Amino acid sequence: MAKTLRTSGDYTIKTGTGAGGSNTVYLDSKTTRIVGDLVVDGSRTELNTATLSVEDKFIEVNRNNSTADTEDSGMFFNRGTSNAGLLYWDAGDDEFQLGTTTNAPSVTAISNITLANIKVATTPGHANHAASKSYVDSTATGFTLKVAGDDSTQVAVGTGNTIKFAGASGISTVASEPDTVTISLGSNLTNINSIDQGSSNGDLILRANGTGDVVINDTLTWSAAASDPTATTVTKVYNKTAGGGGTGIFFRNSNIGSGAVGELISKSKATALAIALG
Fold it and tell me: How many angstroms separate the CA atoms of 156 and 162, rounded?
């Protein structure tokens, strides 16, 4: 026979001294259903059931945390006499961690964890999925890197091989971790037939160190200039069709003759001029 107990206010069942005592209230029935919210105030909630079925879409832990992200929280897995399994949010490192721990579920912060493996699908189905070792190994197998020189000739570098940057004619290369190759000029350049500027209308600069000089130990050949250069405060020496000086070597400097073009005079021309002037 069904019975209903209705009260006009709160209804309390209390055994002995209540929460501070040692007595227990038993509800012995096939099914106990609570219509409405269930609030349990205590230090421990224990379920001795074979299966826990939860209709809620989300489960919240660390409910009363009202501060910034400074508290660890997660789930412990009882492994009998072995260290407990643990999946939790590490507030200090700002990341999830998975492993085993000697800590008890009653701690407020995890102080010990041995990270464990996590098994994922062999082949990830999304760019942000975790990749298995099998997938990485199979993807890396047969990988070939092709390196091209200035002549565009490609050289294939297979898995397990090494790319070597070899220096020659005073050029040395040194490799160091991480990912650094240093190319140094250790001696004088040899077997160099041409040096050209790197950009259109760019200057080519030869500069000695300190008080040293730029020394030319051979014949210096001049190519005819298309036109006279613009006069500046730096003396510019160039070649064009010989004029009255008989050399074809001209110079120009804005501080000399108001920037007028001058020609170096040859010995024969100078001698003839001296005789003519008496």
Answer: 11
pTM exceeds 0.85 for this model: no
Q: Name the nearest CA neighbour of 117 among 94, 134, 105, 102.
A: 134
CA 27/CA 10 separation, integer angstroms: 19
How many other CB atoms are there within 10 angstroms of residue 135's CB atom?
Answer: 16
- Rounded to whole angstroms, the Cα distance separating 18 from 56 reads 31
82-109 pLDDT tens trace: 999 999 999 999 999 999 999 999 998 9
* Alpha helices by DSSP H, the chain: 133-140, 267-277
Tokens at residue 255, please? 């501080």
Report CA torsion sign: 228, 229, 230, 236: negative
> What is the rounded CA–CA span in Å between residue 217 and residue 195?
17
- Residue spans of the domains in the chain: they are 67-119, 236-277
Give the separation between CA 230 and CA 253, rounded to whole angstroms.
Answer: 9
